[in-house]
Amino acid sequence: MTARAVKETSLKIQRAGSDQILAAHGRITQDGVDVTHGAILYLEDITVSFDGFRALNKLSLSIDVGELRCIIGPNGAGKTTMMDVITGKTRPDLGTAFFGQSIDLTKLSEAEIAHAGIGRKFQKPTVFEQHTVFENLELAMKTDKRVWASLRARLDSAQLDRIAATLELIHLSTQSERLAGLLSHGQKQWLEIGMLLMQEPQLLLLDEPVAGMTDDETERTAELCNKLAGKHSLVVVEHDMDFVNRIARKVTVLHEGSVLAEGNMETVQNDQRVVEVYLGR
Ligand SMILES: Nc1ncnc2c1ncn2[C@@H]1O[C@H](COP(=O)(O)OP(=O)(O)OP(=O)(O)O)[C@@H](O)[C@H]1O
Ligand SMILES: [Mg+2]
Asked: Which of 99, 138, 147, 263 is the most exposed place for a label (fewest CB within 10 A)?
């Protein structure tokens, strides 16, 4: 792929962001998110109904800055729907959803929410298969629109360093020139996480990141999550309890669209209601 083609693709991606609309909202500043009260995400009484069925039922949840929160719960508990609400894919019927103190997520489009600093990884990896690993990270990099407007031909050394550091973090340094389509399923998942990281999200949402991974890949993904915690705020939904055990700090158990239990792993595992929900599957 030529440098020009990379640039043109990058521009298309950059334009997907929506500066003008963001400016109109006025509440989102270039400085980022107002987290003066310590919370990066605040959901209160979120209700989502599908044809009368309540997928989320007065769900309330708050995530602190730099926190790594695991969300578990049986199939259909509403975990993915919760992520859909946070990312603007689904509008709640009722309730409030704030990113930091002042960004009302229920009023923003999906593109605006992504631009504001919430990155989401879906279960199926979505990388650019025909591009190399390096190009995938390059395309995903957050860049100043004015710089892109001048069509600069090359990455500066700081940007190259960021790509190198990300490659290292996601265990793909030796695969940099490989076409993404040739990576294993686990490697594609890491690459997609890397692409999200290039956009410097404040909050990262990972929905079942280790589904389909080998044990070794699962372990490395746990290491990666542990490294990201503190630098980013992370919400990780996962069924694989070995994985959850490796990364768990505070765990939230969802059931029938609401929080059933919350606490450290030991607390939730010993919670009688949690045991019943899982045994009753
Ligand atoms: N677009 C939709 N239309 C109708 N029902 C839906 C829709 N999306 C989700 N649901 C229903 O809402 C409930 C919650 O689904 P959700 O996907 O959020 O569960 P989940 O906790 O992510 O489950 P899993 O662990 O299986 O991924 C399920 O009963 C599901 O069938
Ligand atoms: Mg789900």
From this structure: 147
